[in-house]
Amino acid sequence: MSQTSVVLTQADVQEWLDRSPFIRFLGLRVTALDHAAQRITMHAPFRAEVERGPGSDQWHGGPIAAIVDTVGDYALIMSLGRGLPTVNFRVDYLRPAIGTGLTATATVRRAGKSVGVVDVDVLDDKGALVAIGRATYSTLPA
């Protein structure tokens, strides 16, 4: 990594997550953090507020996209130690996520002086891949 690095622990990252009312609403919990692999994993429980339609038990794409963006961002934050603005991100939805929590794993592909690129896999509680995402974040100092 070309910038000054810090080492945030799993507890540090969870504390940062819990500061955001929206992220707290999503219920994201850090389940694994690996600085050497530049990878972080988080879980979000299913709840009625994220349903696509009343009684469908199916996740709406918006909360899934928010999870991709958030987990991707924190893959870089855990090493840079500061919040980073999103430049762009995309999500490909591969299958419906119905009545299940979601586990998102983000892996840093590049952490450069001006941008960072992160890939995110989103799995249901049975381990099926439901979405993939790629996000770009500005790593320029504030």
UniProtKB/TrEMBL annotation:
GO terms for molecular function: hydrolase activity. SUPFAM superfamilies: Thioesterase/thiol ester dehydrase-isomerase. Keywords: Hydrolase. CDD domains: PaaI_thioesterase (cd03443). Residues 59-130 form the Thioesterase domain. This is PaaI family thioesterase. It is an enzyme of class 3 (hydrolase). Its EC number is 3.1.2.-. It comes from the Bacteria. Signal peptide: none annotated. It holds the Pfam family 4HBT. Belongs to the thioesterase PaaI family.
